[in-house]
């Protein structure tokens, strides 16, 4: 039977999205008792999807495409124009392979030792009280610059951190913060473009085994070098999210603060820490939804999906779907003992396949940096959490709890 997708009436619901934040899609899914709901956002008809089966649908590249799928405001801040996120088909596969080729075992191992070094250096240079989020952004900016091989001076790291973080901290904001985010992107892209040109005309030497060199000389599926602007966008697709891991590191400390017994367990070994980290990525909100568009009209569960319609897949909501998770609003790392590694049920960094789909290229790297940081603080640093009750808001995207720790030297 042909049915229309359950539809929320009204001209536009963008303001409710700002108010309800991470609950926006869950609320509508519950209200209409449906895994797909139609609404209007930014003046456009939009489908909202939630759950494992919906994720399988969403990542079917015969049914959805990414070209210009994201609203222009997100392209001007978070994503940049012309990067891998907006590619489809062969062009996407080829570009994505470039990203995945950077994620070798050795290079992931190396980034873990860089992070550890940078944490040590940071703690040695700083006073007793450390604000985790601020510290992590600097540590991660230094890590990202070293790991990618983007030429920079020791003292530039602060500046890089202060321009990279607005790209994810303020991308979803309106007004002056949005403008700051856009301006940061403009500055960083032009800085990187200059470096690309210098490497190409051999006036600047960079380390050859690193990401920057690799992307500068990458050839597309037609054998052409990438436009210097696209190189800049893709390098920012490495630098920006590495610094954004600061949000997860802050949540790690919030979890240690709120669930001390779980933190005690995580001291014991790699597997315990891994489950703790997975639960941090499941439980706390970060990336609200992934965005695509319907490629051609199709039917799903009796509902007609219309070509070109913007479609959001609820990442937070799927990670809290009671059909998939027992007591989804409890922090229980133990649940990951039984998790079978399905690519569509646990999707904080997107779902599906890395190579043919748009799943986050940096997921392993993220988990590794979280693992090494958690181990470092639980087992190698003498620190204390002052009494605090930091809160985060479910309508801030991303939410940042702002944890403090005291280091005991
Ligand atoms: C894509 C989340 C860290 C590189 C994505 C997507 C999400 C995501 C939700 C989009 C999935 C989709 O559109 O279907 C996160 C979160 C991170 C993180 C929460 C934690 C900080 C990283 C890191 C890197 C990275 C560390 C690189 C070093 C990318 C790239 C894409 C992507 C290149 C585009 C993939 C594509 O379009 O094929 N990420 N990410 N991310 N991420 Fe991440």
Automatic annotation (TrEMBL):
InterPro entries: Cyt_P450, Cyt_P450_E_grp-I, Cyt_P450_sf, Cytochrome_P450_3A. GO terms for molecular function: heme binding; iron ion binding; monooxygenase activity; oxidoreductase activity, acting on paired donors, with incorporation or reduction of molecular oxygen. The keyword Metal-binding applies. Its cofactor is heme. Heme binds at residue 360. Keywords: Heme, Iron, Metal-binding, Oxidoreductase. Transmembrane segments: none annotated. Signal peptide: none annotated. Belongs to the cytochrome P450 family. This is Fatty-acid peroxygenase. It comes from Aquisalibacillus elongatus.
């Amino acid at each position: 039977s042909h049915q229309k997708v359950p539809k929320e009436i009204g001209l536009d619901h963008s303001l409710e999205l700002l108010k309800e934040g991470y609950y926006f899609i869950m609320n509508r899914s519950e209200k209409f008792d449906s895994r797909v709901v139609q609404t209007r956002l930014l003046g456009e008809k939009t489908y909202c999807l939630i759950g494992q089966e919906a994720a399988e649908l969403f990542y079917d590249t015969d049914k959805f495409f990414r070209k210009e799928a994201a609203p222009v405001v997100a392209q001007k801040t978070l994503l940049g124009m012309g990067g891998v996120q907006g590619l489809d088909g062969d062009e996407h596969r080829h570009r994505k392979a470039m990203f995945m080729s950077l994620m070798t075992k050795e290079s992931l191992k190396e980034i873990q030792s860089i992070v550890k070094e940078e944490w040590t250096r940071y703690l040695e240079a700083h006073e007793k009280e450390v604000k985790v989020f601020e510290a992590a952004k600097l540590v991660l900016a230094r890590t990202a610059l070293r790991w990618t091989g983007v030429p920079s001076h020791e003292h530039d790291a602060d500046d890089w951190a202060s321009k990279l973080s607005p790209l994810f901290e303020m991308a979803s904001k309106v007004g002056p913060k949005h403008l700051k985010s856009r301006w940061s992107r403009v500055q960083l892209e032009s800085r990187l473009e200059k470096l690309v040109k210098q490497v190409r005309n051999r006036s600047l030497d960079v380390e050859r085994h690193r990401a920057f060199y690799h992307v500068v000389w990458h050839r597309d599926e037609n054998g052409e070098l990438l436009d210097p602007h696209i190189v800049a966008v893709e390098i920012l697709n490495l630098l920006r999210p590495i610094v954004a891991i600061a949000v997860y590191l802050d949540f790690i400390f919030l979890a240690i603060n709120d669930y001390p017994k779980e933190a005690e367990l995580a001291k014991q070994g790699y597997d315990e820490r891994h489950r703790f980290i997975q639960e941090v990525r499941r439980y706390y909100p970060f990336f609200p939804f992934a965005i695509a568009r319907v490629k051609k009209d199709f039917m799903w569960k009796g509902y007609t999906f219309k070509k070109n319609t913007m479609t959001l897949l609820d990442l937070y909501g799927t990670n809290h779907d009671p059909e998939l998770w027992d007591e989804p609003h409890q922090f229980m790392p133990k649940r990951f003992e039984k998790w079978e590694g399905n690519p569509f049920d646990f999707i904080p960094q997107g779902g599906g396949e890395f190579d043919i789909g748009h799943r986050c290229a940096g997921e392993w790297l993220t988990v590794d940096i979280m693992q090494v940081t958690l181990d470092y603080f639980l087992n190698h640093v003498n620190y204390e959490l002052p009494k605090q009750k930091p809160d985060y808001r479910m309508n801030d995207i991303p939410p940042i709890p702002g944890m403090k720790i005291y280091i005991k030297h």
